[in-house]
Amino acid sequence: MDPPKPVVLSLGGSLIAPDDVDIAFLKRFSNLVRKKKDTRFIIVCGGGMTCRHYQDAAKRLGVTSHEDLDWIGIKATRLNAELVRAVFGKAAHPIVAGDPARRVRTNRRILVGAGFKPGCSSDHDAVLLANAFKADTIINLSNITHAYTKDPRKHKDAQKIGRCTWGEFQRIVGTKWVPGGNFPFDPRASKLAKRLRLRVIIAKGSDITNLDKMLSGKRFVGTQIGPD
Asked: Cβ-count burial of 84 within 10 angstroms (0-12 exposed, 13-18 middle, 19+ buried)?
């Protein structure tokens, strides 16, 4: 019999390290994951401000290569992932996942992943891990409650999205990946998730009560993106 499908959490770096490491958030988050003793988790960590500080510094120092900027971002995600993995102690697999397209054999309840190679974000790695472990849903946790029809910081008429298809979502975020780009869900990850017919939930990660509702199958606040 196959083991139960894991819950894949794409944990935005803006939650782990909005500037300094958010210790209070990580305590609340880890307590909730520990409480769900019958659930297997794959937690894929983003880079947050650690990533952006280093990428901005590189640009000011004359670095223009997208590949170099991506490698800087990848290392930031892996630093965050090592921290998250260590917080869970023996409940987590002792090594941060490498190639997300390959299934890790582990008897631990929690597997932590991060960025892997240039050209995409940790969201893309979350999609690859979901596919490798036969999960059908990714919960994308960041600092926003919903995806919007437009960037709400620039457009007053931007509207929250409750549900949409991948086709509708791609018309909003486009198809091009930019290192350090600020997307609700990375365009390359969206393209792959659409092909694999995955469901992605976008929600505010700092709202632990709302996350608990998602994990418990209750009504929650967020955007749901699904197959066309």
From this structure: buried
**Containing domain of residue 144, as a range?**
7-226
Residue 2 belongs to some domain of the structure: no
Would the pTM count as exceeding 0.85? yes
Instruction: Tell me the C-alpha to C-alpha distance, in Å, between residue 187 and each of 31, 108, 170, 225.
Output: 32, 31, 7, 13
Tens of pLDDT along 93-118? 999 998 888 888 889 999 999 989 88
Bridge-based pairing of strands 110-113 and 41-45 is: parallel
What is the pairing mode between strands 7-11 and 137-142? Answer: parallel
Order of strands across the sheet that contains 137-142: 110-113, 41-45, 7-11, 137-142, 199-204, 223-226, 163-165
End-to-end CA distance of the chain: 31
Interatomic CA distance for residues 185 and 145, integer angstroms? 13
* Position 76 in a domain: yes
Token representation of residue 65: 């290569």
Give the number of domains in the chain.
Answer: 1
Considering the domain boundaries, does residue 1 fall inside one? no
**31 within domain boundaries:** yes
DSSP 8-class letter at 9: E
Task: Write out the two tokens for 47.
Answer: 């880079």
How far apart CA 67 and CA 117 sit, in angstroms, is: 9
User: What's the CATH code of the domain at 67?
Assistant: 3.40.1160.10
